Each structure stands twice: as structure tokens, then as C-alpha cells.
Amino acid sequence: MITSLINEQLICLNLAASSKEEVFSEMARLLARQGRIGDERQFVADLWERESLGNTGFEEGVALPHAKSAAVLQPAVAIGISRAGIDYGAEDGQPSHLFFMIASPAGGADHHIEVLAELSTKLIEEGFIARLLRATTPADALAMLLEGKQDRAIDKVADQGFLIGVTGCPTGVAHTYLAAEALEQAAAELGYQIKVETNGSIGVRNSPSAEEIARASAIVVACDRQVDLSRFAGKPLIETSVKAPIKDGKGVIQQALKAPAYVASQGDKPTEKPRAGRSDLYRFLMNGVSHMIPFVVTGGLLIALSLAIGGHPTPNGMQIPEGSMWNQILNVGVVAFKLMIPILAGYIAYAIADRPALAPGFIGGWIANDGSFYGADAGTGFIGAIIAGLLVGYLVRWIATRRYHKMVQPLVPILIAPITASLFIAAVFIFIIGAPIADMMAGLNALLLSMSGGSLVLLGIVLGGMAGFDMGGPVNKVAFLFSVGMIASGQTQFMGAMACAIPVAPLGMGLATVLGRKLNLFDKSEIEAGKAAAAMGLVGISEGAIPFAARDPLAVIPANVLGSMVAAVMAFLLGITNSVAHGGPIVALLGAMNKPLLALLCMLTGAVITGIAAVALKKGRMSRSAALA
Fold it and tell me: By its UniProt entry, which InterPro entries does this protein fall under (predicted)?
């Protein structure tokens, strides 16, 4: 990774700066001159925002300022050396001389974390920092960075046993990987094999298996954030700060080898209080979305495959012969689709309050997605799942932090919290949220009926907007069921407009991932989800766009609504009809629509508008957020 992000022109061996502010400005200019950032002021502001989470000055005169920023055009690492030293606010109180400034695009891959992990292996090397500070030319400095990791003379063969380490710092960045490297080197010098789990800001990596835990001689938990310690029950274990192995890796390991066996208890709690705020909320949502995506992709593609190969258009929709192989495949896909909304809610709750929130989160998500609990024709969809997950998570967290008698405490995570939260979320949807949703659906249906004889443009705007709003949720369902009902009365133009609007959201988001790739607006998982969404869109499965809407509703939902509106209005104006209760290009290609080529044009136009709008809105929101930082 380092080799692709740094060159000689990004290395300054004699910084003129005399303060932290001047270091940021001077090195930002260096990045700007190389075309790596487009807005120096914005990037510097993002650096300071990162500093507010914790000072990036470390021991031995090293500082690692870094930021994910919309100002970054291309990921890069700039290196600066101050001969006189800068008062950077380092943890050891000493001046900082060596600066690694890491620029990573906002919304892109976590380049800064990957680089920090790679730099850790160099910074831990004995004498590396001193050698780098003595470099006389940028070429010499670059050569030192790119040279292979030094082979250290190990007197002992690694046959003393097997160890497990766990590292993590509050922000999940530099110390996490520095501590992991220090443990690995110390273990090798003592003759032990070791596997180190890192709990960084890009997630948990390199977790030990049950078999590895079983054969471990000792466990070193050098972590300042919450980790699951119960899995290490019965093993010699020490808990210490993430800085401890960096200062004395051998000593920490020797303490662990002499430590008593760990006994799991209710004391397995976070060592840091979770910080509230937008970043936490985003992390909770992402946990739900990341677990939901496999269900969306699996279910959507199985349904798409079965409809495309085994389906036939009928007045009641795309039908697959009962008892056929494709019907069974369809049923498997439907199961995955039924599970995806509870999965979203469950893992949002889990991210907030851990395992006690998992069951009530699933239950709340299922109730939210099943309108029969509260007398509605359709559930609340992914919006309801997000509400359920957040409510359950915060309730369980509150319950778990109360003081209980020692006889009651063990029952809290397995009985009290799950049951209380399950009853609470069921009551919220059945008695509070459910009735308004049912009334809303009835009101929307009445609105569509009252508009059915009016302006086609206005009707297309309303019908298309409803189709693109929640992708299979209650608003979408009202528009769909209204259009299906109009088929029975011989007015197939409504279903024609709906059929053109249905695939716009998934097709548009699939296109957006292609358009936004060079702008680093989507990560790898979203790009893969975009391919699946496009495939679902071809057979009229609007749920393919849900992961994108759940992750960034303020950008994705307006884009979906706009494109769907355009597609529906065009369909009405072009006189497109559809006698089948389904939508998407597959319906047009199978002959259920009177003007298939024009219908495809409507769908394509709407998808293009959605894709362009989504990219523009995401880019705009990202730039505004960075500017306000």
C-alpha cells in the first residue's frame, strides 16, 4: 500500500514550520502541489477534526496526522522532518521531529488505516526512526520506507507455545497496530508463536478461532475499547492498556504467562464510555446494513433468476408453475427477503448494546415488517427496521447499565433485557406506530383514487414518487396495490407507469456505483451490492436499493424519488400500459406492455437521472460535511 501512495516529491526533509498549525499547512501544500488534494483549507480542517478525537503525536518524536477528507483527490502519504522539533502535544511531552501525513478520500477505502498498519511494522523496528531522521535526500528516505522488514536475530526457535493477543485503542488507529507489531516481535524473541486480533476503526481483524484459543498458553488483552473476553474463559489472561506492549512487549507476555485463569463474569464491560454522536449512529446503521446486504443479494438474485427463467406474465403478476424447480428457488429467495429487514434491525441493536439486544432487535424488525400486527396491508420496511433497531439498542443499553442486586445481575443479559425490550418494541409498533401507518396507507390510496381522473403529469409525479420512496415499504405498496386494482377495472395505464417506476431505484443505484467509483463515493461492499441491485432491477425487484437508502437516506431516497417520478410521468405521457401486476424490463421483454421499447426508454431515463442525482447529492453532502468540520 505504501508503495502506491508515496514518492520522492512527497518527502520534505527540512520543514520550515515551527508549530503544529504550520506543520499541517506546509505539508498540505506539499500534497496540493502533487495534485493529491484539491482544497488545502478543507483538508487542514479535517486534520484538526481528527485531532479532536485524540492527539496523533506519539513517542520517540513521531506524529501521524491523518484524515479522510472530501478534499482528497487521490490517496497519498506525505513525510516531513523538522530538525529543530515541534511542540505537537505528544504523549511523552517531547518535541516531534518525524511526521507522516496520510490523506485518504472521504467515502473511499480506509487507506489511512491500512497505511498506519503498514507503517507500524517499520516504526517498531529498532533504530528505524533514527535512521530515517538521518536521511540526507528524499531518495534515501523513500528507500528506507520501502525496504523489506528487517530480519531480527532470534535466539530461540518458536517452539515455546502459542499466544493470543488483542489490541485496540479508543479511536482504533495507530496504537492498535503498533501494539500488535510489538507483541509479534516480543513473542518471536521469547520463542512463542502468536496471533494478534486488531480491533481497529476498520473493524475486527485476525480473530482467533475456538481451536486456537483452546491451545493458547496465555492471552494478552492490550485494549482500551470493548472486546468479548468471555471466549477466553479458563485461560491465563491479563488486561492492560494498548500502550503497554509498545513500551515492554516481553514484560507483558511474561506477565500473561504467570496470570491466573480468566473467569467470565458480568464485569466484561467496555473500558471506555461510548461516545454519542453522528459517528456512532452511522456505525450502528452500518453494522445493520453490512449484515443485511448478503440477504438482499442472495434473496434478490434467487428471485430474479427464478422469475427470469421460470416466470410467465399473467394478469396476477409474474407466475412460476407450482411444483417446479424454479418455484422452489423462488421460495428460497423469498425467505431471504423476509429475513433481511429483521437482520437490519437486529444488528443495529446489537451494535448499540451487544448480544442482549440481538433477539429483541430481530423481533422488532419482524413486527415492523409485518403489517398484520397492526392492521396494515404492508409493514414499515427498512425505515421501520431502523427505528426498531435504534429503540431496542438504546433501551437495552439503558437497562444493562442500571444497578442490580448480585442475585439479579446474571439474569439481566439473558432474561430481563431481552424480554423487556421485546415487549416494548412490540407495543410501540402495535399500539403507537401501527395505527398511523394503517391510516396513512388508507389516506394515500384515497388520494390516488381522487387523482385518477386528473392531470397525468401530476399523477405520474405522485405515483412515481411513492414507488421510489421506500422500495417495497408501505408507501411503495400503496402505489403498487392501487395500480393492480386499476387493472381489474380495465385501466392498465396506471400499472404501466408503475412498472416503469419500479426498477428505477435499483438500476439507478447500480449505475451510481459505476459513476461514483472514481470519486470514491462507494466502498467495495457497496460496489458489489450495486451489481446485485442492477440485476434485481432488471426483473423489477426494487428492494435491491435498500442497502444504499439505509446507509445514506438523505442522498439516496431523493435521487430514487426523482428518477421514479420522471419514469412514471414519461410512461403516462407516452401511453404505456401493462396488464401484469409486476414491473421492470423483464415485463416489457416478455410482451406484457403495449410499447416495450418506449417502456424501456422510460426505465433507462429514470435510472440515469437517479444515478446522476445520487452521485451529485452524495458528493455535495460530503463536501458540506467536510467544510463544516
Answer: Bacterial_PTS_Sugar_Transport, PTrfase/Anion_transptr, PTS_EIIA_type-2_dom, PTS_EIIB-like_sf, PTS_EIIB_2, PTS_EIIB_2/3, PTS_EIIC, PTS_EIIC_2
